[in-house]
């Protein structure tokens, strides 16, 4: 008979979540948001009741496969005239829904755990992926303040995060992000090219066939 002692030990609630370096100034905080998952998803439902998900049009005229909405003082939008942050949702003509307190706190805590204390995001982009949805390599560079990091929370179905370099041509590494994982990048990695490979089909207990991503940014 075999008996694995470690199977018998309860998980230590004081064990900090695993931190996985991605590059200088960039980490994956494994499972950092896992316990908050259902509360965060409920809040996403409330935000999207006020400002519905939509497929934005790129300046080049293509419809993005990711569906997006925003909460906070600023929202990221794209149309034929370019990319911008806008305090008003162009689809509703109203300000974006307020950033839920739990979102703000999570972003602050995750940034601090990654070495960026005092993070005060004014924008949260919410991305919704279905099987086949992808996000091509890009830099987050529409923010006026590049000293603040990006905090990115994965919920629901797992995805392959493409983590490249400072040049578009740098070959990206592939990092699996699961429900509750949080990626933080800033400092020397702030302008690293990144993206999401086409989402694989699956069934998640909380989101079914979807992946939801929250991206927190300080834009002003
Ligand atoms: C983004 O780069 O805006 C989103 C990344 C992700 O969905 O994890
Ligand atoms: Fe991005």
Description:
The chain has three helices and 13 strands. The chain has a seven-stranded antiparallel beta sheet with strand order 1-2-11-8-13-6-3, covered by helices on one side. It has a four-stranded antiparallel beta sheet with strand order 7-12-9-10, with no helix packed on it. Strand 4 (75-79) and strand 5 form a beta hairpin. Helix content is 14%, strand content 30%. The chain is globular. The chain is of the alpha+beta class and 220 residues long. It starts with a helix and ends with a strand. Bound molecules: succinic acid and fe (ii) ion. Succinic acid is lined by residues 127, 135, 152, 154, 161, 194, 196, 213, 215. Fe cation binds at residues 138, 140, 194. Substrate binds at residues 76, 83-85, 142, 168. Residues 1-12 have a biased composition (Low complexity).
Please give the domain count. 1
Strand/helix succession: HEEHEEEHEEEEEEEE
Count of DSSP strands: 13
Name the poorly predicted regions: 1-8
**What is the gyration radius calculated from CA atoms?**
17 Å
CATH architecture: Sandwich
User: Largest beta sheet: what is the strand line-up?
Assistant: 1-2-11-8-13-6-3
């Amino acid at each position: 008979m075999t008996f694995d002692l470690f199977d018998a030990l309860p998980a230590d609630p004081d064990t900090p979540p695993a931190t996985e370096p991605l590059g200088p100034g960039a980490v994956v905080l494994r499972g950092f948001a896992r316990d908050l998952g259902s509360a965060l998803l409920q809040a996403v439902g409330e935000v999207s009741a006020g400002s519905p998900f939509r497929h934005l049009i790129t300046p080049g005229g293509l419809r993005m496969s990711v569906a997006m909405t925003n909460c906070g003082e600023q929202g990221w939008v794209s149309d034929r005239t370019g990319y911008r942050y806008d305090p008003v949702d162009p689809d509703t003509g109203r300000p974006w829904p307020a950033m839920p307190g739990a979102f703000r706190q999570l972003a602050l805590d995750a940034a601090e755990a990654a070495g960026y204390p005092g993070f005060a995001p004014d924008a949260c982009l919410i991305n919704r992926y279905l099987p086949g949805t992808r996000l091509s390599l890009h830099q987050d560079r529409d923010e006026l303040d590049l000293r603040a990091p990006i905090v990115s929370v994965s919920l629901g179905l797992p995805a392959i995060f493409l983590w490249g370099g400072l040049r578009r041509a740098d070959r990206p590494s592939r990092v699996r992000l699961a429900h509750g994982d949080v990626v933080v990048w800033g400092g020397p990695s702030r302008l690293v090219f990144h993206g999401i490979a086409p989402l694989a089909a699956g069934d998640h207990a909380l989101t079914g066939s979807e992946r939801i991503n929250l991206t927190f940014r300080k834009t002003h």
